[in-house]
Amino acid sequence: MTIAPDLPTATDVTVRPVAGHIGADITGVDLREPLSEHDAEKLRRKLHRYKVLFFRDQHIDHAQQIAFSRTFGTVTPSHPYDDEAPEGYPEILAVDSRKYEKRFGRTKYSYDNQWHTDVTAVVNPPAVSLLRAHEVPERGGDTSWTNLVAAYEGLPESLQRLVEGLRAEHRFGGRRPQWSADSEYGRRVRENPFVTEHSVVRVHPVTGEKALFVQPGFTARIVGLSPSQSDRLLDLLFEEVTNPAYTVRFRWQPGSLAVWDNRATAHLAPTDLDHLDVTRVLYRTTIEGDVPVGPDGRESVSLSGAAFRGEK
Ligand SMILES: [Fe+2]
Questions:
Q1: What is the dihedral of CA 235, 238, 244, 246, to 10 degrees?
Q2: Is this prediction's pTM over 0.90?
């Protein structure tokens, strides 16, 4: 986006932490206007500190969301598999219950209803994701995030040492895909698989913090363990990652926007709407990510599929 000269300004970005380990409310910014470099840098710093930033009453359109997204880096296409971006905006992923109903044949409010970090099946998962609420139900439909750094730091030292040496395979659907293999989506995943081996512990390239980089949405197995050993260890790690102590929950209104550090968090789409006949429409953008690095300096390795890049 165009960066305005860094003049003294009457607007003052205010940051109010929300939960004990994660999340901050941001006020004093109008995302219809270009940000000063001072404010942009402040938001990037706060994002790394609080992992997810919440904005209210930002009634912006697709172009303005894409422009604001550039504050955090290069904007990617909507999704490796998604070809239903709104006309003229290939960067926008519509998280639209009507689309999922058509695709999966049943009411669904996200393509993935498990805890997940966005698109970790690719070798360079998005660094940052932004999600803007357009139409939301009167009740229900909240999203939760968890702090993967807190999850790592909460492990006893012996388990930290154990997991630091491990690598895991990530693929769409993780251990248990939520779509049937013969669905159109299942076919798409099978014909163009993305599979990557990441370190179980990821070192954040900006903060240097260690994060427990596994989640049920994508992590399929721990490399080098038997299937039952892998399942039991993943159960333990998923329980840590989804510990309510490390989470924050956000109630959407039209014009709400959440920005999260996808290198240090996982999130959970709503699970409380399936019995309600409601429409929920949000729009996501993602920022091109780097290739994760483990504590031993080893990079992630793609086993199938290309890196996920945007246009510079
Ligand atoms: Fe997601």
A1: 140
A2: yes
